[in-house]
Amino acid sequence: MVCALALFAAACGSKSDTSEGTTATTGAQTNITLAATGEPQSGGAFVMGLEAESDGFNPTVNRWAISGTEVGLAVYDPLVAYDANSVAQPYLAESLTPNADYTVWTIKVRPNIKFHDGTPLNGASITTMFNAHLASPLTKPALGPITSATTTGDLTADITMKTPWVTFPNSLTSQLGMVPAASMFDAAGKPTDAGQRAPVGTGPFVFNSWEPDKAFTATKNASYWRTGMPYLNSIEFRPIPDSGTRTSALRAGDINMMHTSDFQQVVKLRQSAKDGQLQIVEDNGEGEEDFLIVNTADPALSDVRVRKAMALALDTDAINAAINAGIAEAADSVFKPTSKWYVKTDYPSFDAAAAKALVAEYTAETGKVPTFTIGTTNNPVNQQQAQLIQQMFNDAGMKTDVKISTQDDFVLGGVTGDYQVNIWRQFGAVDPDADALWWYSANAGDGSAKGGLTLNIARNKNPKIDAALDQGRMSTDEATRKQAYADLQRQFTADLPYIWINHALWAVAAGNSVRGITNGPLPDGQPSLPIGGGGDFGGVVRFTQTWLTS
């Protein structure tokens, strides 16, 4: 459910010359795509280059990052999807209706839809899915208010909650809202190993094969409920962890499409699109953040002075210039300054002298030098970033090492607390409540640094944060919700579980034979959010309405 890649940073509006001689501009730029002419063409084998592999494809138990969500949206349909105004709309669901106090939501699914194994989608399917989530150590914390799911009719199920959940539909746009078939569970409702390897959904493509770290393949669902779709005969998802290799594969025609949040690659892809060699679409939404996530339960990092020294020691302009082609947008909050939720706090900015002084104060008082490990994935750019950060911290008087892991191990280490400081990329939900699961104290475990699956990966417990999240979740008044998330940001600055670096920039690039690059219209015909928006992920699109020209 979470993933980590690069750490990026920038001064807003800065420019720099890249190694390929192009001038880079900060932030998302105008999309460069080829207009569709005539009706969509059916047929063709399509290959999507992903940033990482996943550990399985049952949405109730497997850890999905952006890549897992991308695959999931091919095999499953989400109950809900965002429209062009970032408002949650029914997708596989026909309607989602709350009671008067938002403690019971009735979900009604569309009629006459079948899973790939021929069984019908019905109210019992929704109950099975939610019961599996409620029994899952991984996903249950994400559905904290829910107490039960009950089938109430052939096409309906009631989801009952202990407290009001006004924004509940937003949580069903991604992994939590993708409906698996009953055949993926045993008689007791437990997910089977076979179901994790061979997913069965209602989506536009039917699972064919999966060879981990090589390819996931699926073929056209000839009985898909959205008439005439999908257009592609088959789709292959190919994990290519190295972002430069992924770009080279696209340029060579080995893959049809790719996603990336590597700023250096975005600059190169922009230039290739300007030269007419390919197409590019950039995410203009809220987007994720790149930051350092701190295991606040670790004794070496439990003193907020250590975390503040890290923030003061981090020269984000230097990181931006060295790593990110000068185009990253600086961050001092979980929200962009353009977001209606953003407030300015006294978040500490780079000050090398102040960092050294704080480290010296801490060491004099405790007799200990701040000592910890910085973790990242086995991507060459990520390793370069980690080494640069390591040098900054060491210059401030801290002692740090760098640990390199595969992304699967890296994510597992995060959710089990087997880390100290990680370079991380996360958050960015359209509505902040969809990110609340990562911040609630109840999801931080028992207070120990390691052990158990925790969605509050920083293991930061604070009742003030809980109160703000409750207020944002339960209120229908926008002014009240804005105040709640203002309180949240101020408390983040006080606690510093996250050392903000920059706002991520996702781009999707495709060859010139691809059409329908971004999300096509919703089932009722209204426009979709073009890119991203599934849960809180930016580099995600649906391939239901993608096609290849001849």
Features:
six-stranded mixed β-sheet, disordered N terminus, globular, seven-stranded mixed β-sheet, 20% strand, alpha+beta, 550 residues, Dipeptide-binding Protein, domain 3
Commentary on this structure:
The protein has 550 residues and is an alpha+beta fold. The chain has a domain at 289-503: Dipeptide-binding Protein, Domain 3 (Dipeptide-binding Protein, domain 3). The chain has helices at residues 66-75, 123-134, 193-197, 243-252, 263-274, 304-313, 316-323, 352-366, 380-395, 407-416, 463-474, 478-495, and strands at 15-17, 23-25, 45-50, 80-82, 88-90, 93-98, 104-109, 146-151, 156-161, 205-211, 215-220, 234-239, 257-260, 279-282, 289-294, 329-330, 371-377, 399-405, 421-426, 498-503, 507-510, 514-515, 547-548. Strands 10-11-12-3-13-21-14 form a 7-stranded mixed sheet, with helices on both faces. Helix 6 packs antiparallel against helix 8. The longest helix is centred in the C-terminal third of the chain and has 18 residues, at 478-495. The protein is globular. The two termini are 37 Å apart.
